[in-house]
From TrEMBL:
Organism, as annotated: Candida theae
Residue ranges with Acidic residues bias: 429-464
InterPro entries referenced in this protein's UniProt entry, alphabetically: Histone-bd_RBBP4-like_N, WD40/YVTN_repeat-like_dom_sf, WD40_repeat_CS, WD40_repeat_dom_sf, WD40_rpt, WD_repeat_RBAP46/RBAP48/MSI1
Pfam families according to UniProt: CAF1C_H4-bd (PF12265), WD40 (PF00400)
Region (Disordered): 357-387, 427-508
One Gene Ontology cellular component annotation held by this UniProt entry: nucleus
Record PROSITE patterns: WD_REPEATS_1, WD_REPEATS_2
Biased composition (Low complexity): 360-370
Residue ranges of WD repeats: 315-357
Protein name, per record: Histone-binding protein RBBP4-like N-terminal domain-containing protein
Cell compartment(s), UniProt: Nucleus
Keywords: Chromatin regulator, Nucleus, Repeat, WD repeat
Amino acid sequence: MPSPTNEWAQAEKEIAQNEQLQAKITNEEFKIWKKTVPLLYDLIHTFALDHPSTIVQWLPKYQKTHDGNGIEVQFLRSSNTINVLDNSLELASITLPATLAANSSTSGGGGGIDIPPDGIDTSNFKILTKWKQNSVANALKLSPDGSTALSFNGDGIIHAYNLSSDKVVDYKYHKQSGFALDWIKNGGSGAGGAGESTNEKFLSGGLDSQIALWQLDKPSTPIQLFKSHHGAINDISTSDVNIFGSVSDDSTTQFHDLRAPSIGDTNPVIKLENKLIQNCIEFHPQINTLYATAGKDNVVSLYDIRNYKEPFRKLFGHNAAIRQLKWDPWSPSTIISCGLDSRILFWNLDNLEEDYTYPETSSSGASAAETTKRKTQQASKPDPCLQYVHGGHVGRINDFSVHPTVPSLFASVGNDRLLEIWKPKTLSVEEEEEEEEEEEEEKEKEKEEGDQEQEQEQEQEEAQEESKEKEHDKVDKEKSSEAESEVDASKPSKDKEVPSSQDVEMTD
């Protein structure tokens, strides 16, 4: 019997081998990605930083350069240094082509594509302001008007930064670090009923399993507490002025109503048990009944809160746990996810109606061959909602941000110490039409192949049936022949005639 020490050593060895294999796969995928960059992006700039960043967040305002050929955009980023006292939150800027602006008369990037380890010009990357922090920032939420940034740090303190001054306000309640922050929406309605976020109230959720509601101008103590979770709070998302959802390490998704009286643990109005821990939750900014969750199941699950017990659709594409979800403000039908597989995936929900079989789906009565065949077919057919993949990182992605006023401009940071600023390729009308034609041709080809496969299966079934019928006929003939033989054997022979009565008398 192997000793526990040997089993532990074997487990460590297997983990190390798996990590090495995963690193090798990631590096190979990165090499392929580098070759396809010109086909995938209008613009991409990659900066190698001194330390990994845990946070990146665009600010909404930008300004044109003096010559009118560029725009200066600003963003916040945090550092994660070995010495925690060296951590900081930085306000930085970068100059990009003016063609990126929403009111530009031309489309496309027009800027160079810089990817390490090639030489990178960092002259247009500037640090404008730096705030020292005593611990790393785990989460950051920018107020809707861009004037205030909230950061939830490793020491459990929430800092509110006034970005137009050096003023910093601290909110102290949580005893442990936290990753969950969100601003409360007001009572106004968007196109689908959801309100706009305001600068007045916000929610925080910590590893202490507690959720606190804060008034921005009252930092001394929370105005309401929610203690119904029994594990670390992983994420919070508000639906409207009164409703918010949360996911936790206790494997539950919960929804609270702020109008409920703050008594004791304040039970949720809805509680959903999950098979695996969910790391993130995000309500649609315009449709307040639509929300998505994702986590350790590697799947993005879409829900209607009016029928919350089961997701109405699951999105498959990640190969590891998902850490973050965001709806694209420039495309209301697009949700974006990033995971531990170093990828950022774009999902187009306009394709929800297309036929797709979940990879996990299987029939209990299916044979091993049928199950293998089904899995092979599914592996070769991606989810039709998967629209775009950003594969520029070689380590875990810690955060990404969608610019609120510059169309389809993204920023991402990871443990690989990379800051990437990028804009996916914009197709012209002609290119879109060509792509649609190619997709239609591909669908027709798949349909023809499916029809041919079905015909072949039908022919095989008919051949099998015919073979069975022949076998049955053969068996029937053999049985008939045997029966006739038995009848013949039971009849008297013609050579041995039965003696007549006269013969019997003569004998006497």
